[in-house]
Amino acid sequence: MIKRIKHSLEYLIDKSSRNKTSEAEENLLNNFALSEYQNSNWDESSMGNSVEVSKNIYDGIQLRMVKKKTFNPYLKYMAAASILFLAGLGFFFKPDFAKEKQLSFKTSSNPKSIKLSDGSKIYLAANSSFQYPEKFEGDERKVVLLKGNAFFEVAKDKKHPFIITSGEVQTKVVGTSFHIQLSKSKCEVIVVTGKVNVTSKGQSVDLVPNEEALFESQKLTKQLADKSFLVNWYNTDVTLNETTLKHVITILQYKYGVSFQYNNEQVLAAPLTVFIKKDATLENVLEQINYITNLKFKVYDEIVKVD
What we know:
Largest sheet: 13 strands, mixed
Strand content: 25-35%
Number of helices: 7
Shape: elongated
Structural class: alpha+beta
Helix content: 25-40%
Number of strands: 18
Distance between the termini: 77 Å
Mean pLDDT: 81
Low-confidence stretches: 63-71, 89-98
Radius of gyration: 27 Å
């Protein structure tokens, strides 16, 4: 019965949009739309202003029509009324209407962490921005990395996949830990534990520990990850033994959300051992590097220069 009603409604609306309905069919649609709209229980707090929603849907219908036609005054309510009617029959789920309240989490000069409602932990790099719902609802747990870098420890829940949007990239997991590093030119996803699916522009790769997805120049590729990235350096003391300055700089860029500028690239090959405490400031780490190398790294907002 419900399927029959839904099919008939869709059929008549489609027929009306093509200007093929009879006068009796058009009157039936108009009367139905008006009745459902007037009797509907519209929740303004979660669904928005009913008049504005109806107008937006109405305008969308007009834009999609090849031939303009004269609409009955009540037709602009038809789409909204039909949605409410079908919702009452169980065709839609609550999350489609009651959007989750979104919160923002931002960092300045130091990394910080946050625990989400499902138990997942997000470690956000300095100078980064993250958006998440106050409480997860529906079949999926969706969040957005708006800017910068983060380490995710996702609570396991096979029935509710965890999906992160970062620029043009989507990362989907059910419970695992991994890095996402987002910049203007690229996005990297590095898996520490579990399995991860990464998609973008119709491309898809599956990752396991020690693997990385790189999205750059509109291409998504899979490669082996640098082993030094297979730890949560936001919440762990890190010792980099006999490594190069270039490697240290890479870690600092991700952890503190800064970029480095230098004129002499030969200094990047200099070997050194650096200890980075999990709660160390960038200035503390640079003082250590300056002492070891006799260089002079200085911070200017989100840029580190060698003077």
